Amino acid sequence: MSKVMPLISANCGKIRPDSVEEYINVGGFEGLKKALKMEPTQIIDEIKNAKLLGRGGAAYPVGSKWQQLYNIEESPKYIVCNADEGEPGTFKDKLLLEKDPLRIIEGMIIAGYVFNSQDGYIYIRGEYEAIQKGFQSAIDNAVENGYLGNNILGTDYCYNLHIMTGAGAYVCGENSALLNSIEGKAGRPRVKPPHLAEVGLFGMPTLVNNVESFANISTIISIGAEKYLSYGTPESGGTKLVCLSGQVVNPGVYEVPFGVTLRDIIYDSELGGGIKDGKNLKFFHLGGQSGPCGSLSQLDTTYCYKALRANGLNVGSGAVVVMDESVCVIDYLKYVTEFFIHESCGKCTPCREGNKQLYAILDKFTKGEATSGDYILLKRISDVMAKASFCGLGQAAATAFNTCLKNFRSEFDAHLRGKCPAGVCFTKQERGE
């Protein structure tokens, strides 16, 4: 049985991305046509029954999020697509934005219909400048062919889609910071509650979903919730785009059904193909820099939200960064922490200062200057960051460190003795060479 299942990525590389005609020829807009004949509540029920969990990282049930917004009477309501893909090791949204933008657009049009919204916004990260131009072309062609704009497909439904962009701030991947950026404010997270479904873009009720989440909507409506759910597990409907990178033979984006194992993803010939240069796997980093690091003992964990969570792991953004035996765990954690130092918005002390202190202590380990007392400091700092940081960036910044300390404590201990198992840290003299 194939471990690869192209469902929402089926068109990628097979059609001209901005061509409405070619998109229609492969079944495009069938979901929209079907949706326009349904009641909004029926569409929400289909999404609920499909058990689609948010593909941006938080894994919140999409149907529940739509239901919450639908129950709010205030209008106008806005539809926002989070395409600020700034998580290192994550590039699956880029595939859809670049190769099949009309699928994302169709999902957003359906959402607009459900909530009687007249305006949708897609926030594309600044580094994707070329993609923005291609996406705008797809929007223009959809308007020209009657799928966007006024009186869509001869109905009374009118809906416009706008592209917005930022300046490359990772924190704008947080939904409320993203909305602030769209409004022209500093990209910093908001106090919640009130939640975005109540007070979102321009102070109005707002739906914010990830690119991959919107890309699934038309498929669910087209094939039905029951069929969609059959591709996954009872708890995790459908498929997932996985980004493989690091020291793996076949890096890239793959669409897999929920239910394969991490071993399949890394070693199967259709997917990762194993570790480069015949080396051994040491660890893997799941879901982006803010996700957990896994060990060899977790390789046979089923790739689905429930099973991964039960084993101290998570799907997150879909990133799988593979590291071999030549990588020092602590040295790797320094790079992760450097990223969070750079990307912290500085709004709250636990994140702004905590990441700096975390890095300073990790640096002591790689220089042979750490002591056993540093374990206590590391634990205290990471706990404060997780419990007191203002938003998810600071709260999850120490996740990789915490899981590595749990799974690779012996490597930390070796550094206390001036030895780096990977031979990366310390000078030659300190290593006794």
Keywords:
de novo design (two linked rop proteins), 4-stranded parallel β-sheet, Rossmann fold, Ubiquitin-like (UB roll), 5-stranded mixed β-sheet, alpha/beta, 433 residues, 12% strand, disordered C terminus
Short recap of the structure:
With 433 residues, the protein is an alpha/beta fold. The protein is 42% helix and 12% strand.
Any overview of this molecule?
- This protein has 433 residues and is an alpha/beta fold.
- It folds into 3 domains: 20-230, NADH-ubiquinone oxidoreductase 51kDa subunit (Rossmann fold, 3-Layer(aba) Sandwich), CATH 3.40.50.11540; 239-324, Ubiquitin-like (UB roll) (Roll); 329-416, NADH-ubiquinone oxidoreductase 51kDa subunit, iron-sulphur binding domain (de novo design (two linked rop proteins)).
- The protein is 42% helix and 12% strand.
- The chain has 18 helices and 9 strands.
- It has helices at residues 20-25, 30-35, 40-49, 62-70, 92-99, 101-114, 129-144, 175-182, 211-223, 225-230, 262-267, 305-310, 329-343, 349-367, 373-388, 392-396, 399-407, 409-416; strands spanning 78-83, 119-124, 160-165, 206-210, 239-246, 252-257, 281-286, 293-294, 319-324.
- Strands 6-5-9-7-8 form a 5-stranded mixed sheet. A 4-stranded parallel sheet has the order 3-2-1-4, with helices on both faces.
- A hairpin with a 6-residue loop joins β7 and β8 (293-294).
- α3 (40-49) runs antiparallel to α4 (62-70).
- The longest helix has 19 residues, at 349-367.
- The protein is globular and about 75 Å long.
- The N and C termini lie far apart (50 Å).
- Mean pLDDT is 94; it is low at 428-433.
